[in-house]
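Hello,

Our lab assistant flagged a job as stuck in the queue for most of the afternoon. It eventually completed. Since we weren't sure the result was trustworthy after the delay, we are filing this so someone can double-check. Below is the sequence as submitted and the structure that was eventually returned. Let us know if re-running is recommended.
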Amino acid sequence: MFEQVLARPLFLIFPVMFGGIIHMLVVRYDWLRSLKVPVSQVAFGKNKTWRGFFIMPLSVMLGWAVMRLLNAHVLPITWTPDIMAQWWKVGPLVGLFYVVGELPNSFLKRRLGIREGALPEKGRWFFFLMDHLDSTITCVLIYMIFFGIDKMTALFCIAWSVIIHTSVNYALYLAGIRKNPF
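-- returned structure --
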């Protein structure tokens, strides 16, 4: 049970969080400006850019490569699904769906007049959760569909992701990399 509650979810979350941190550094330091073109400013706002569609798949792939090295040399994990052998495929797939998963939430917020990066006063907790769950749910669905992750592991992935995502965002805010804490 410990493995399903903690080890498996963290194993699956690490590469995505790694990719998200790389993406935040790219955004913070405005690297790859030529890709900083909104996908659709009207539909999703100015912050959903082609740069994210480029960076997230590559950085999540890099996160899987790091996880593979850690698994081989530092933290041997007995549960290693087919994902480990296919890190070069799963990284871009999960990274792409991470970005795609954020689009419906951004679309809804723009329709409601909520500005980019903001949480409204009314429905604040709903949008806080959506900001932390949208991409997580799509990533977990990819893990379930393509790699056979069981439902219990998927649920713990989602729960741990909210906790870790919130903590990492706050740490990045304290480090001056994010503009807002959540």
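-- support follow-up --
The delay was a queue issue, not a problem with the job. The result is valid. Residues 83 and 90 are 6 Å apart (CA to CA). The chain has a mean pLDDT of 90.
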